[in-house]
Specification:
This protein has 7 helices and 2 strands. The chain has about 130 residues and is mostly helical. Helix 4 runs antiparallel to helix 5.
Amino acid sequence: MIKEFIEYKNANPNNFNWWNYVNVKADLQTALAFAKFFYPEIVEIEGYFLLKDKYNEELFESWKLEFKNEKVCVEKMMNLYELKDFFHININVEEEENEQTKILGNILKLFWSMSFKKRFPDRNILVEVYE
């Protein structure tokens, strides 16, 4: 799915892999940022399970009012991530961005589900991907 990786791999067929690609494209700070992206911090407020980095008290109160404290709806709106918003600055128009976004969304779903299960084994936390 990544054209540039394929080009590098084709140019170096015997000694280029994903580790090499990450080494060429990323730095330690980016890796640390992505660690939070794949393993987000959670806060529990008034029994609602919310992503810490997205929490906004005013918005929280507004959604509670809008949805009459319907927990699933409030949590869904508060925790909604628009993946395209994270990468709109570094768009490569030649890549299949929509397909890549879907793949990343499903990967995040997997990691978030595993991390929530490990951290909160007694909670039934559902992670969904919306298009």
